[in-house]
Each structure stands twice: as C-alpha cells, then as structure tokens.
Amino acid sequence: MDWDARARAALCAARGMAHLHAAHGLVHGDVKSPNLLLRHDGDPDNAAALSDYSLQHLFAPLPPSARAGGYHAPELVDPRRPTFSSDVYSLGVLFLEMLTGKCPASGTVGVDGGGAALDLPRWVQSVVREEWTAEVFDQELVRLGGGAEEEMVALLQVAMACAATVPDARPEATEVLKRVEEIGGGRHGRATTEEEGSWGTPTGASP
C-alpha cells in the first residue's frame, strides 16, 4: 500500500470510530488491523471500514498472553470493559502500524527480548527521542510516498497523542478525526475550518 492508500484507510478508521463514539455512544473494543477491511470499489471516501465492533462483551476474559498483543491500552485489565479512551489508544497503534509497517502483535523488533509482543508506541517514542524520526517509517512507504513526508510526520504526531500512556492525555475520537482530515489540506478527506489545537510532537507523548 502506498501513502495515499494508507492515509485514506487511516481516515476511514478515524471516521468509523468517531461515528461509533459520537453518534451511537458505542465502544468498538477490538480495533486492530485484521478488523480494518479494505474496499476496492474505487470510492476514496469509503476506502476502508471497521468491523467486529462492540462484540467484546460476548466473550469470557482472556489471559494476558492470549489478548490482541500490542493493541490494547495498558490500563485495560478486562478486554470486555473497553472505554472510549482505550479505543483511541488502539486506533493510535493502528496508525503506527500503517506508518512503520511493523505489527505490534508480532514481536518483530527485539526491544522486549524476543517473542514478546512489540510495544510499538514505546519503540517509536524511543527512536524519535534519539532524533531518528526518519527511521520510524516503513521504507516501502517512504519509497512510494511521493514526497509526503510532512503528512506522514503529521499522522505520526496524531498516532503518538492517541497512544499516550495516561488515558486523560488522549484526544477524543472526534478530535482525532478533525486532525486526520486536516492532514494534506483535505486531500484525503473533508478538511475542517475550525481552529487547530496543539497536540505537541511525538516526543511529547507520555513515556
């Protein structure tokens, strides 16, 4: 997937979550890449859709080793009791997965010493802290990005704000949607005209 395809998928994921939260008061509870279904009907406004929402209460609680590693917010003890804030955390991890090309459930980076699930937000934060931000991005994405580095960095900032360790530091889903719509000046969706708030840089996310 090139940058345009990933950016549109990120926008659709943000729209889906904002709709669930704001219009219906529903928590998704299981945001992860297998639950983001890509569409190939040529409609850029409907490039992807969130699936399997609000099903978490139907299942017994899973042991920590069996959970969707890397996507769940650190404060979430029982996956049957997700919150709006834990949904936003998972969305941030999904954005990071799109940007880095690394699956948080795979343990592909050895920061945890082998088979453990990758703590993708903390890995990204550690790389950015060393001022190696360019090393965060999927090299295939950089090659196909077509000069979209500023948009990629902007989505990285949104993702790190969503994946803050402290729940109260995370933006609401509607705020996330506004920020993602603004990336690229509306090239990937409807741009907002409201005053843009400051969420800081990736290094400002909670450690």
UniProtKB/TrEMBL annotation:
<dbReference type="Pfam" id="PF00069">
    <property type="entry name" value="Pkinase"/>
</dbReference>
<dbReference type="GO" id="GO:0004672">
    <property type="term" value="F:protein kinase activity"/>
</dbReference>
<dbReference type="InterPro" id="IPR008271">
    <property type="entry name" value="Ser/Thr_kinase_AS"/>
</dbReference>
<dbReference type="InterPro" id="IPR050994">
    <property type="entry name" value="At_inactive_RLKs"/>
</dbReference>
<dbReference type="InterPro" id="IPR000719">
    <property type="entry name" value="Prot_kinase_dom"/>
</dbReference>
<dbReference type="GO" id="GO:0005524">
    <property type="term" value="F:ATP binding"/>
</dbReference>
<feature type="domain" description="Protein kinase">
    <location>
        <begin position="1"/>
        <end position="183"/>
    </location>
</feature>
<dbReference type="InterPro" id="IPR011009">
    <property type="entry name" value="Kinase-like_dom_sf"/>
</dbReference>
<protein>
    <recommendedName>
        <fullName>Protein kinase domain-containing protein</fullName>
    </recommendedName>
</protein>
<feature type="region of interest" description="Disordered">
    <location>
        <begin position="184"/>
        <end position="207"/>
    </location>
</feature>
